[in-house]
Every structure is written in structure tokens, then in C-alpha cells.
User: What shape does this take?
Amino acid sequence: MTTIADTLTDLLNTAVKAAGHGDAPVPLAPFVATADPRHGDYQTNYALRLGKAVGPNPRAVAQQLVDALPEHPALGSVEIAGPGFINVRLADDWLGADVVERAGKEDLGLGAPGTGRTLVIDYSSPNIAKRMHVGHLRSTIIGDALARMYRFVGWNVIADNHIGDWGTPFGMLIVAWHEWRDEAAYAEDPVAELQRLYQLFREKSADDAELTDRARAETVKLQEGDPENRALWQDFCRVSLEEFNGVYDRLGVKFDVVHGESHYQQAVHPMIEDLMARGLAVEDQGAIIVPFEPEDGKGLSKNPLLIRKSDGAAMYGTTDLATVIDRMDTWAPERIIYETDVRQSLHFRQVFAASRKMGVQTDFVHVGHGMLKFDGDVVSSRKGGGGMLNLVDVLDTAVAAARKVVDRESAELPEEERAVVAEAIGVGAVKYTDLSQNPASDIHFDWDRMVAYEGDTAAYLLYANARCHSIFRKSDVGDLTAYTPGVILPEHEAERALAITIARTPEAILSATEAAKPNVLANHAFQLAKAMARFYNQCKVLDDANSTETTTSRLSLVWATSRALETSLRLLGLAPVSRM
Ligand code: ARG
Assistant: This one.
């Protein structure tokens, strides 16, 4: 099975050849879902392009292509519209059968088009000895959704958490640890204590050159493998990762590898030597840089990549270059995606350009996210101090807001179940608020709005799915997951609109993946939930006045809705519940 768009595009391709346009120098324009049902279900503008390029005229070309289309049961009606669009309306019975077959498959009939392709995706990537901040939260949520989507479409995905665990801050921390540590505070909230020590070092070293010299010496000792410094550094890493893992568990996020920046340090010096030997890197006022030409990328000729400072220290980008080489050697990925704050985009353009100069051939993608702002306060369960935001507190705040709504809207559920639903809505709201926007946009947490049962919210989507389950609980079947669907014949307009939305789910997944925009899928899930609500208002599912065929058709549609919705929700990292 494949997508409906692909099925139709294959027919078009056959028609193009049959009509004698097979050698035309115009790339095939696929069929795409129409936004307006008056233009049918799928449309292509290929005849317009072909007509303009080779003639005769677009409408005449459209007619040739329509005449040459092979017979196919999907084709309900085919029309030529406007200057030469070809509009297809699917046959109702074919659409109904497609929905049943598709919804019965784990992959919704997508057919794993990404098989044999490898992706490395670098996301979350917080820094040791520091609290994860909201930027890391966004990176974690968006990166996880992308990793799930790529896996779903068949790619081999390596999810890599590129932890910041190397560099000069560790020498500073080691000095501060010896001077000012509070062991009780470290036992209580280790990351807060490390963050306090680091801050204190910055303040005290501002007018104390001796401290700075000591920190530099400790960094060198650490890098040379001094056992005492190594042990301290390892402990800082351990306590930080424990805290990060608490956030990942709560979010249901997993990585395949967690290689920190330290993992690549041995490769850095040989790499710099290699760059110099090949003339790709040059000395510049005591430092070493990779200079760029105008053709390496816009604005890059004024922004060389600094790979070694005049004091000998390697940089963030140096580690990133060594990381690219290592990833290519280990996995030979076809694509590498980085998800970070959009303000790192120049950095990544430099790293990508330098990698290309080194001969790396892969498809580099930087997905940059915008800012995240809050309305009101985050309830803080710990005394972090210093304006630090604990991400566990952010999640707790969202879940508490959700709990209030659940207690009101789902009052009939038992206490333990309301707690589970509130967790799904609260954590889901944090994710969905992020994922329903273009990654580059700034987002805004409005606690009460984001957990509401109405609106473009996680709760609305979870509710639409819970309603599907509830319909089955009221039917003779009892349990949606035990249902074997029958024939769907979409007769009512609201039934047909729901069926076509279900059938388009794999297309939404595919385009969200290709564009690295989870919001494309989030929006589709919202369309599904809306189509479900409209269908439910207009078509009675369980009604004695229904014929057996109608009841079967509608129950099957409800079943398929839930299958498509749950798949979409899981890809976005949300946890479907069967009762709300
Ligand atoms: N640790 C960095 C930060 O907190 C993000 C690292 C992103 N990944 C990378 N390969 N540079 O900003």
C-alpha cells in the first residue's frame, strides 16, 4: 500500500507516457490533497506546466492526459478546471475500502518509503552542571517528534543527545568546588549547587586573575586525565544526567546514544592538523580559522569558523566538526538534523560549510526553534533560587492546571484515572503547544488555555479519541480495540469528510517529516478531531433507526478515526487515553 496521492500520481505518470509526453523536460507535478472540496479530493497542475513548456495549451494537454488515464476504481470523477487543473474526486466505495484497509495497518498503509535511509538527529543536548532551560525543552520535544516520525516512515534513526560536557567551565567548577562547596546543598539539589558554584566563580574571578589561572590549570589537568579531576568531572556528569533523565522519563523521550562533547575530544587535534595540511584551515593572528568563499554560503566569507583560539583552546564548532566526521565514519547517515535555538543558525551554517570543504557528503538540516514565554508563574517545588527554572516544575504546573479541568469536566472518573488523564493532558499540552506551531515561531504558555477541552489543544485531540472509545463502550462490541471493521460507505457529507481526512493521514505524516515540521502533522490531527466532532453531531452512530449497514459503516469509521488519531498523537509524543 502507499498514499492515495502516490496512487493517483502513478496513474498520471502512466497517462503522461501514453499521451506521448514521456520525454517532456517538465518534472511530474504530483497529485496533492485539495484544501477546498469543491476542487475534488486531489488536484495536479501538471498540465499547466507542461502546456506552458511544450504546448499545445494547458487545457488541451489536460484533456489529453485525462483521456489517457488508465481505468482505476479510485477514480470517481475526473474534471478539468480553470486554466488546466486536473481534479479527481475519489469513488465513495473505493474511499471507504481504502480507509478500512489503511486503518488496519500499523503504518496506516504508508509502506515505509524511507527504508534503507539513515538519519542522525541531534537534539535536547543540555549542558552538564546547568539546569536544562526552556530552549532545551523545545529541542527535546521537537527533536523527539521528528525522530518518531522518521522512524515511522521507515528510516533508520539514531537519536543522539549531544551533551555539553567539556570545556573551560569544568576547570572553573573544580576550583569553585575546592573553595566554596556546600556538601549538604550538593546532596539535596546537586545541579543547583553546581550552578551556584559556577556563578560564584564568575563573580569572584572578575577581579582575581589568580583564580582564572588556577581554573585554566585545572582544565588542563582534567584534559590530561588527572584522576582526581576526572573523578570530580564524572560525578558532575552523573548528577546532571540523573536530573536530565527525570525530565526525559516524564516526557517519554529516549535516545539511542548519549555521546557528550567529551567523546570527540581525542579526534580534535588530529583533525586540526589535517585541516591545516590540506590548506582548509589557516593561522590568523595566532588563532586557527577555516575561511570561507562567497560560494560556500551567504555571508560566510565574513564569518570564518574559529577552530582554535590563540590560547590554544578548541571551540564549540571544533567539536561539532569532529562530531560530523565521527558520525559519518560510524553510521554514514544520508541526513543529519540538529534541533537547537534558531539563534545558533550561523554556527551551523559554518559547521556545515566547513564539513563540505572536508568532503563530507550528507544532507545537513538545522531546525531552529524560537523562544518560549510563560504567562504567570511556574509553581516551584524546590528552592532553586537565582531565577532558575526547573523543567519538572514546568510540567508539574501544566499537570496541576490540567487536573483542575479534569476534575470539572471528567468528574465521573475515579480519582486514579483522573490523575492519569491529567498527566496525559498536562504533559501533552506542553508538547502540543510547541508542536502545533512552526518550530521557528515563538510560543507562549497560557496554562489555562492550553489544557482546555475546547480549542486547538492537546485535550481536544485526546477527547476526540476518547469519544471514539466511548461510542464502542456503549455499543454491543464493547471495546474498540477488539473490533473487526466492516464496510464503510460514506454517504453523508460529514462521513465523507471524515473518511478523506483519515485517508490523508499518511500524507500528512510524510510531508511533516520531509519538511521537518511536526506542526503539519499536529494540524492534521486537529483536522481529524474536528471532522470527528462534526460527524458525531450530524450522524447518529448507535440508533435503532439505522440500518445494520449504516451502523456498521459508522462504527467502522469511528474505529478508523481512532486508529489514525492515536497514530498521529503517538508520533507527536502524546499519550492517548480511552476515557476522559
Ligand atoms: N549544548 C548546546 C546548548 O546548550 C546545544 C548543542 C547542540 N548540538 C550540537 N551538535 N551543537 O546550546
Notes: The pocket of arginine is lined by residues 122, 125-127, 162, 164, 320, 338, 340 (CB under 6 Å).
